Amino acid sequence: MADKNTTLGLYIHIPFCRQKCPYCDFYSFAADENTKEKYKDAIIKNIIIWQNTHNLTFSTVYFGGGTPSQLGSRRLSEIVQVISKTSDCEVTVECNPFDLSECWNLSDMQYLTKSGVNRISMGLQSADEDERKALGRLAGRKEVEKAVDLVKQSGIRNFSLDLMLGIPHQTKDSIRESVAFCAESGAKHVSSYLLKIEQGTPFEKVEKLLDLPDEDESCEMYLTACEELEKNGFRQYEISNFAVPGCESRHNLTYWDCREYLGIGAAAHSFFGGKRFYFERDTESFITGATPVDDGEGGSFEEYAMLRLRLTEGLTNDGVFDRFSFKIPSEMAKKALIFAKNGLIQLTDNSISLTSKGFLLSNTIIAELLT
Amino acid sequence: MSLVPKENIRNFSIIAHIDHGKSTLADRLLELTDSVAKRDMTAQLLDNMDLERERGITIKAHAVKLNYKAKDGREYELNLIDTPGHVDFNYEVSRSLAACDGAVLIIDASQGIEAQTLANTYLALDHDLELVPVINKIDLPAADPDRVAAEVEDIIGLDCSNAPRVSAKTGENVEQVLERIVKDIPAPTANENLPLRALIFDSIYDSYRGVIVYVRVMDGKIKAGDTMRMMATGAEFTVVEVGYMRATSLEPAAELTAGEVGYITASIKTVGDARVGDTVTTTANPAAEPLPGYRKVNSMVFCGVYPADGADYESLRDALEKLQLNDAALSYEPETSGALGFGFRCGFLGLLHLEIIQERLEREYNLDLVTTIPSVIYKIHLSDGSVVEIDNPTNYPDPAIITACEEPMTNAHIYAPSDYVGAVMDLCQDRRGVFKDMTYITNDRVDIHYELPLNEIIYDFFDTLKSRTRGYASFDYELAGYQPSKLMKLDVLLNGDVIDALSFIIHSDKAYARARKIAEKLKDNIPRQMFEIPIQVAVGGKVIARETVKAMRKDVLAKCYGGDITRKKKLLEKQKEGKKRMRQFGTVEVPQEAFMAVLKLDDDG
Questions:
Q1: Which partner for B428 in B77, B177, B433, B538 could form a disulfide, CB atoms 3.0-4.6 Å apart?
Q2: CA distance, residue B552 to nearest chain A CA (Å)
Q3: What is the ipTM of this complex?
Q4: Would you call B565 and A276 a contact, using CB atoms and an 8 Å cutoff?
């Protein structure tokens, strides 16, 4: 599989956060310097072993978390330096705007850019201070502006901001304001996620008290965001992702296109050599050299279709044929026709793709198409 | 030939209200008589179906031969015939008792006499059985054996001065029960020289031997090679083997003679050929008259049983066939529903019987089922003078040609602490009951007698009774013929289409309330779908209740943790699995939970 594809992604999970956001169920915690140092060493060791044994070169690298900026710019750049990268490799680091505005200076950013980092992703969540506070975010609007300036000063033009939808206090107007903030800041990419109350998070316990918008309201918010983002030049390419044309996240497209990637770090998932596997959500065991857990075969048509249908491009006959030597099954097209009539799917002779309204029902629709 | 003389045989049963410790006492008797090796001992050994152990009830009758050396120094042969313990199985109980000469009556030392204590006592007395009262559960903190003994003397008129006071759980005083059985229960009166008459009190299907028939030989004898005849069905078979039931195995014997309890195998293919209550005789020397009391058991409660996945239809048929081998009271015939596809109309003795069969199908045969609302048999008089019997709402005639309806009634007795009289009467009134009388069993316990329509008690009557009396009430009923009634058929429409599987027949007084409740339940249990779904409940063409399921708008996994595709796949699998559990009605998908919710519709819910 890997030699057939020209791209290979590398995901690096940094499970550290200054503090846990009340809606987050990703694997992260606050760590001391010693742990961070050992964790960085373990990451580097793993990368070198994988590179050497499989002779790998990566075309995209993505530091996700947690909060990769919590690892510190020096350690991040140490890691990036050991990675064998293609000349046009996209290297993204997720950063917390508070880390950047309050703890980092330009030289920190330059550590990153020198080692090869060329893309930054930051959580704005909302341009509205009340909404940000309700989400428990540390940085205010000012801090985010300061962080954006720092990124731009370092020479990185390709940066992304995250927005959240369906959060307490949110209105259509405040969404417009948040989208405008993204456009004015010069972001090339926006990820816009509907809040989902995850099990075991503090938000789950107080869900009733949160004054969350209801199903219909949050749908309106999503559709408003899609519309506003388009108006501001961000073209939707995935359920929750929008970009100035040409600035789509190549790394994330690896996932949606069902191509292979290696995941290094506690709780990191891989799809490599046709197999899916992952490291346990346990930093200690990762540091001491745990081996990944087998997660079965990857790359079936069902998996491919499930992932591709998250993209606005959807499933195409050519794309399916390239991978599986058959075209979109006619059964599937027949089912799609029913959704097309309701404006949930866009159907052409050559492709099936979901509309914005369809994306809101994507779980149901995809299950329906694949049953 | 038995090793002990006839006068040392004791044929007895244990009768009790549910949960008074029948199966536990049986366990202790088996242990005390060394009938089971310790290592083979599991709790409630005779209840060998998982379901029986879990529910704490005996579904099938069982029998076992115990050898006991009594304090008088003599060897006794004790035949314990365990009886099913629920009103649904009253006929089976009566046949088991007919095979006995005495019965051990267990009364819980804290609860005292309950509905089935009395019902079973009366049954035993009908068969002239000698009763041995045993007061059980003396280890409980709330035990009051003196009070309970006085209750038994007052109400049943049994002398309790010698009644063993035992704890079947700890084993305390249990040997006294064996002594009382030997002393108080008479040996069988039996004449080996008369033509054979053996009472079938149970039969089980064994895939190697065919049906194993459990009998009590009343007169005469039977041995391998004899040609036997079932006197009610006329079926004839050549006896392959006779013998005794041991706790964990069958023990072949040369012959079974009058007074004994044992088994017969004769390559019988279905239990329908060896009906409980039938009399076995021989063709060589046939008896003139069968033993009294046989009747063919008829199903009282009917419902549609459908495989959740249409592909399982064949498996469902096979499973029903196998269950019927062992259960002559289960009836089934194929039926088709527009909504549910191919399935079976099944008949049961009662709601418990229905639940048990359903659970066994799901568990033992791994089937996913959808069942429709249970129905009783209604008699519908038509304008042409004919009368039709309807057990399926689908066949309900056009109201225009109906002149009158009749529904089956029951005589119901509810035993409850007097504090709950109000609650019980409210419930019975609610269920269209007609009060008959009320008697005080003791100062603080009453027997409330109501005439109740059968269709009012097959839903959830017992559960509701239990919850309204905090578990203190007990209940027993017998059928009491038909009475005129005002009936109508309710239809449920989803998105304008009648869902035949949800139609049911109901008394007109209850139609509106029930229609509203059904509409609400469906609304709560049908998930939002891609479009709005109107729910209507109608009588004839008239809609009497309506609700709407709003269209779903959002079902999306917006963010997924970097590369964790497995999580998405699991979600997809779950979603697809969910779809499988849905029933497609035209354009509407209805989850099985919605059916269940309508089925379990209760007054308090």
A1: B433
A2: 8
A3: 0.85
A4: yes
Rounded Cα–Cα distance for residues B279 and B359 (Å): 32
Model pLDDT, residue A4:
42
Distance CA A236, CA A245 (A): 9
Q: Tell me the chain A residues in contact with residue B531 when contact means C-beta distances shorter than 8 Å.
A: 342
Nearest-angstrom CA–CA distance, B48 and B42: 9
Element (H, E) at B179: helix B174-184
Q: Which tokens sit at A123?
A: 């959580």
Name the residue of chain A whose CA is nearest to B550's CA: A216
Q: Is A22 exposed, middle or buried (0-12, 13-18, 19+ CB in 10 A)?
A: middle
Give burial (CB, 10 Å; 0-12/13-18/19+) of A246: exposed
Residue numbers of chain A with a pLDDT score lower than 50 = 1-5
φ, ψ for residue B30, nearest 5 deg: -65, -40
Q: Which of the residues A94, A361, A362, A370 would you substitute to probe the B interface, choosing the one with the greatest number of B C-beta atoms within 10 Å?
A: A361
Distance from C-alpha of A56 to C-alpha of B524, rounded to nearest angstrom: 54
Closest-CA residue to A304 (of A324, A288, A290)? A324
Q: What is the pLDDT of residue A110?
A: 95
Angle between helices A33-54 and A73-82 (to 10 degrees): 10
DSSP label of B581:
T
Q: What pTM was computed for the model?
A: 0.59
In chain B, the percentage of residues whose pLDDT exceeds 70 is 91
Q: Average pLDDT over chain B, rounded to whole?
A: 86
From residue B420, give the alpha-carbon distance in Å to each of B107, B116, B439, B447, B468.
22, 18, 14, 11, 8
> How do residues B275-299 score in pLDDT, each as one tens digit?
888 999 999 999 999 998 777 777 8
Residues contacting residue B221 through CB under 8 Å, at least 6 positions apart: B192, B196, B255, B256, B257, B258
> Which residue's entry shows tokens 């891609």?
B530
Q: Which of helix, strand or coil describes residue A1?
A: coil
The pLDDT-based confidence of B256 (bands split at 50, 70, 90) is: very high
Q: Rounded distance, CA B432 to CA B554, Å?
A: 45
For chain A, how many residues are written? 371
Measured CA to CA, the distance from residue A245 to residue B239 in angstroms comes to: 89
Provide Rg for chain A, Cα atoms. 21
Structure tokens at B7: 């006068």
Q: What is the pLDDT of residue A302?
A: 93
Decide which of B604 and B352 is more confident: B352
> What does the pLDDT read at residue B602?
54
For residue A231, what are its two tokens? 């108006």
Joined together, the tokens standing for residue A159 give 């940066």
Summarised one tens digit per residue, pLDDT across range A202-225 is 888 888 888 899 888 999 999 999
Q: A219-233, A272-286, B216-230, B453-467 — which is least confidently predicted?
A: B453-467
State how far Cα B529 lies from the chain centre. Answer: 39
| More confident site: A1 or B600 | B600
- Distance, in angstroms, between B453 CA and closest chain A CA? 45
Token pair 């992260």: residue:
A28
Local structure of residue A23 (DSSP, 8 states): T
Q: By C-alpha distance, which of B112, B108, B161 is closest to B139?
A: B108
Helix (H, G, I), strand (E, B) or coil at A43: helix
CA dist., res. B188 & res. B11, Å (int): 7
Lowest mean pLDDT among B155-159, B194-198, B237-241, B587-591: B587-591
Nearest to B553 among A11, A216, A370 (CB): A216
In degrees and rounded to multiples of 5, residue B212 shows phi and psi of -100, 120
pLDDT band at B52 (very low <50, low <70, confident <90, very high): low
Whether the ω angle into residue A66 lies within 30 degrees of 0, i.e. cis, is yes
Whether A370 sits inside 8 A of B572 (CB atoms) is: yes
Q: How far is CA A58 from the centre of its chain?
A: 18
User: For residue B574, what is the nearest residue in chain A, using CA coordinates?
Assistant: A367
